[in-house]
Amino acid sequence: MSKFSDYNFNGRKALVRVDFNVPLNDKFEITDDTRMRAAVPTIKKILKDGGAVILMSHLGRPKDGPTDKYSLRHLVYHLISLLDGATVKFAEDCTGPVAEKAAADLQMGEVLLLENLRFHKAEEKGDASFAEQLAKLGNVYVNDAFGTAHRAHASTAVIAQFFAQPDRMFGLLMEAEVSNAEKVLNNATAPFTAILGGAKVSDKILIIETLMDRANNIIIGGGMAYTFLKAQGKEIGNSLCENDKLDLANELLEKARTKGVQLVLPVDSVAADKFAADAATQVVSNDNIPAGWMGLDIGPASVALFSETIQASKTILWNGPMGVFEMEAFQKGTKGVADAIVLATAQGAFSLVGGGDSVAAVNQFGLADRVSYVSTGGGAMLEFFEGKVLPGIAAI
Ligand SMILES: Nc1ncnc2c1ncn2[C@@H]1O[C@H](COP(=O)(O)OP(=O)(O)O)[C@@H](O)[C@H]1O
Ligand SMILES: O=C(OP(=O)(O)O)[C@H](O)COP(=O)(O)O
């Protein structure tokens, strides 16, 4: 496999898959640019060599084609500033005549950002002819999207077959992420605690079973917890829940018991009467969320319970906020868990925090430099720790 730093991009148009799936607020402002900053060294090296860069990414999970909310156009000005004023052009589509003309007109030293790949259903389907159309835009392929390496999509995995060696490779971010994750995986000291939360329940619940082979403790908070609580017969009101995963949740609770893995669930929640920053709130025990209310954060007793396990751990892996930390009323749980991880780290534990929103939370609290490693990948990092070869890595 060719090594990115040894490759000379002079005169070449590099098609670079990045993960620019950054959080945006309702004014389309970027609230955390970690993933963009993390891709800058790769982009700069190609430009410095005398090459041109064509960036491909997804943003969010658009369901019905092009929508302004999910347009990568919102990222252009910030990208220009991160690249010290380099020329950044934008193509309104990632394939077809618009993209082809923009790529053909692109000059060496310039950057072209393509519109959201997921505006085409073919991307997530891993459609080979869509991948081939993307591949035609450049003459070398660089995968720097660690955060999306667990997806077998057209731009992350299928596209690689259209580039022969040495014209396909990982970028600097992907190299660094994989090497760090390998180091942690091979040197993890017990007790090993995985902390899961967030809102991508149907995806990430599937990871728990394999994680049980590695982790001594699995803490489950955030939106992920309520499927487990409901499976235990608790009243969760309108909290986030995957009703078709209730049996799986019960099986996982049973497997944890059999394997001697401590699966820790929240004991209380900050319940809200609506999903809004100005909602009425109350702290309730988790068997008692009133009908019509929803758990939007873990409560103080849960923070204390989780902190105890975290502080007794030597290796800590965290993906998924404990609540809707974007709203002030629901950020105490995430902050409390972050504080416990920082304390454990100061006492010698190795802590790895990953995922677009989890990293945004840690940055928001000013704690990013007090954990051992911040990863751009959430689901990707978890699947790596399951021992899987991620499709984006295998394809290269
Ligand atoms: N109890 C909850 N109910 C609804 N959403 C939640 C809850 N707890 C956390 N979230 C949301 O989960 C989102 C992050 O989930 P996810 O994408 O899985 O994390 P990451 O991006 O770190 O991998 C955040 O936007 C947060 O508001
Ligand atoms: O944000 C991401 O993953 P994460 O929420 O697990 O950190 C990646 O950009 C992948 O996005 P996806 O989960 O919509 O495929």
From TrEMBL:
Gene3D superfamilies xrefs: Phosphoglycerate kinase, N-terminal domain
Binding-site residues for (2R)-3-phosphoglycerate, renumbered to this chain: R35, R118, R151
Organism domain of life: Bacteria
Keywords of this entry: ATP-binding, Cytoplasm, Glycolysis, Kinase, Nucleotide-binding, Transferase
Gene name of this polypeptide: pgk
GO BP annotation list: gluconeogenesis; glycolytic process
Record pathway: Carbohydrate degradation; glycolysis; pyruvate from D-glyceraldehyde 3-phosphate: step 2/5
Cited InterPro entries: Phosphoglycerate_kinase (IPR001576), Phosphoglycerate_kinase_N (IPR015824), Phosphoglycerate_kinase_sf (IPR036043)
HAMAP family in alphabetical order: Phosphoglyc_kinase
Subunit structure comment from the entry: Monomer.
Positions that bind ATP: K204, G295, E326, G355, G356, D357, S358
Any one annotated GO CC term: cytosol
Catalytic activity line of the entry: (2R)-3-phosphoglycerate + ATP = (2R)-3-phospho-glyceroyl phosphate + ADP
Organism annotation: Chitinophaga eiseniae
Locations listed in the record: Cytoplasm
GO molecular function, one term: phosphoglycerate kinase activity
Official protein name in the record: Phosphoglycerate kinase
Annotated EC: 2.7.2.3
Broad class of enzyme this protein falls into: transferase
Binding, substrate: D19, F20, N21, R35, H58, L59, G60, R61, R118, R151
Main location: cytoplasm
Family named by the database record: Belongs to the phosphoglycerate kinase family.
